[in-house]
Description:
Number of helices: 13
CATH topology of the largest domain: TIM Barrel
Strand content: 15-25%
Structural class: alpha/beta
Bound molecules: 2-phosphoglyceric acid, magnesium ion
Distance between the termini: 52 Å
CATH architecture of the largest domain: Alpha-Beta Barrel
Number of strands: 14
Low-confidence stretches: none
Strand order of the largest sheet: 4-5-6-10-11-12-13-14
CATH class of the largest domain: Alpha Beta
Largest sheet: 8 strands, mixed, barrel
Order of helices and strands: EEEHHHHEEHHEEEEHEHEHEHHEHEH
Amino acid sequence: MRIESVSALEVFDSRGCPTVEAVVRCEGGRPCRAIAPSGASTGRAEAKELRDGGRRLRGKGVRLAVENVRTVIAPALIGRDGDHQQAIDRLMIELDGTPDKSRLGANAILAVSLATAYAAADAADRSPVEHFSHLWNEHARDLPATNELSLGRQPLFPTPMVNMISGGLHAGGNLDLQDFLIIPCGATSYREAFDWIVEIYWELGRRLNDAGFEGTLVGDEGGYGPRLTSNEQALEFVVAAIDGAGLKPGQDVGLALDVASSHFYHDGGYHLAREGRALSAADMVDLLERWVDRYPILSIEDGLAEEDWDGWKQLTDRLGHRVNLVGDDLFATNSRRLQNGIDRGIANSVLIKLNQIGTLTETFETMRLALSAGYRPVVSARSGETEDVTIADLSLATGAGQLKVGSVARSERLAKYNQLLRWEDSAAGRWPFAGRLPFADLKTPPA
Length: 447
Ligand code: 2PG
Ligand code: MG
């Protein structure tokens, strides 16, 4: 499966921001494309996107990254075996030579890494799910099986974690917390889960409108962006919408939060601007515990800031047996940071964003480490996305169990959800739906 051509071009993401599309073709196959996504609430430990600087497009152009694909990466990759994903990724890491991929750009490297996987799949006449499973198995072969449906052992339709209300950097600071999400854990299939989500989303929009809030204006990920009076009010609205849609909060549908607290943490305090108060780490843990007592919350992401490891330890000791505690900015999909968390007993889940680390191989390594330590992976989109559907294919193929893409509005989000609907349609019962599995160990499962 010799790589015959590697190229790239500048395209645009869901915020109109330039990004890198790579095009790779293997012998006997068609040209295959992949596009790098881009975050707004980025963690400090993430691999770095290369942007041009200067005046054009406020410095955000990616012509240098595209040039790096054409002049540095392409000559090194052409002639190599596209099925040897690990070797291809290692070669790009070496060519870059920096710890954060800042020389060639994580946007350039990731786009090529993913396009190579699609090109190899095409040349081998494998579906993307078959090919990602084949690559994942090289990493996950010896994962311990805890039960028949254990995560990471076989393809699973992921339980979606879906944004209903957006705040923080994704919606102009209307609320301090970034995402108020729902998890349709009680559904019996991915399609049923999706029907429920849409019913709840529409119900929520109507209720926000009726209450005089903006029930049609949406944030970067398609969740509503109402200017509510407090953060907790968002939780109340979402629970009422689940109920109003005829579903049982907690039993059919749980809640999740992405607090994204690194972005309101400064000078040792958590500054809730919407509520005009600043909290210590201990106060934040108390607040989150109160919400877990009061609302059917299954998962909390970045409840504390990326460098507040001591606060994270308190949070994990207090809530780690009751909810999934997901490290996003904290771990940045980086196996060294995740290992540190595992060693210190911090968090029990990890957000998986391919562009935080920059290659498919390193992403798989982090997922493998997570699963072998009993941490649950949540495959995630970025707030800046495109029509690229890699995370849908990858979350299914690896059996990660959870997928976080944003809401059910904006087609860069629906592209991923629809891809899974297509797989479900064609798979005809071949792969199970994860449902409650990623939450099975929690001490207070939904009533
Ligand atoms: C997050 C992501 C996606 P961003 O914080 O989890 O919601 O946001 O891509 O802006 O980092
Ligand atoms: Mg996050």
